[in-house]
Amino acid sequence: MDGGELVPTALSQGESYHVFCTYSSTDYQWTHTLIQQLEQSGLRVCDHERDFTAGRPILNNMSESIQKSQKVLLVLSAEFVRSRWCLLEANMSMFRDCLQRKPIVPLLLQRDLPIPLPLAHLTYLDVHQPDFRQQLMRVLCTPNQEMQGSTVVPYQPPSFYNGKSLEPLPAVNEEQLNRDHFKSFDCGEWSESVPEQLRLIIQQPEVYQQAIQIINTNEKHRIMRELQKAVGQANSLLYEQNVLIGAQSNSKLLLVYVSVERCRQELSGHDQDQEVFYKAIQKYSCDYTCRLSNALLPFETTSTDGHLEGGVCFCEFVMNQMLLGKTRFCCCCMSVFSAFSLW
């Protein structure tokens, strides 16, 4: 690999590697070639397949290797997100201290890949770019103190996560529904366990469990419209966790990380009538989540007063839907008069 005049940063005391590389075993061949090229350029790479201590728990090996490396290289593919990232995320309390001091360098093997939420703010290197290897060498040879904003910080949901789509949630009986023609119109059932990708987001697992129970406790032979209503009811619990659900199909739920707290205040009006907001959540949140996840919102906001930077917030969406339905509302205070009594 031609890195020009780039020289790896000297290893300091306690450091054994310039970079710790983690990847899915399905991407071994591509990653192994890259590691060889990096090492030929003078970088010391910790390869988890090669350098982990045999007989030690994998989590201990990973934690120690990260601590002994200057940077962390993530080779992101669909399989990595499903398997190895889940291992990191599920044990983030163990890795958080060492990760927050290490620049994270994500390599994107597949375009349009759903990115794990705690990595959503990072700048990615696209391996398909013609100058990818030169870009990677520049990053890996840059001293850590010169890499601003390149670390995974302790989890505090910042505003730039707002509106991010998460991995869709398939029904536990999805294959059966797809296989059995007579069940193809039935709605699926979902696990009540908090999925790996939500464990850093959901602060109250029992709330998530209650929300999924609402979705699952409808009649088994229910139509999509009934599933969508159940999802709206579930969202009346989940919104406080900054998560909304949408029903993409009878066997797949969409998940979006989005805060609607300021929208709640806007819709509730000066007298903070919570009933208005809860009815809005139940009626519109399922559709809003699906549209937000698929970037298919019915209009583009030109207002700077919205609550979702660069997108349409929930209360803007609600007001738009009410206008399309000729529902009465007060323009000056954005509070609903008797609109929801018309539902």
From TrEMBL:
Key words of the record: Membrane, Signal, Transmembrane, Transmembrane helix
Q: Which domain of life is it from?
A: Eukaryota
Q: Which GO terms describe its molecular function?
A: signaling receptor activity
One GO process term, biological-process aspect? inflammatory response
Which InterPro entries would you find in this protein's record? TIR_dom, Toll_tir_struct_dom_sf
Q: Where is the TIR domain?
A: 15-140
Q: Where in the cell is it found?
A: Membrane
Give the PROSITE patterns listed for this entry: TIR (PS50104)
Indicate where this protein is primarily found: membrane
Q: Which cellular components does GO assign to this protein?
A: plasma membrane
This chain belongs to which protein, by name? TIR domain-containing protein
Q: What is the lineage of its organism?
A: Eukaryota, Metazoa, Chordata, Craniata, Vertebrata
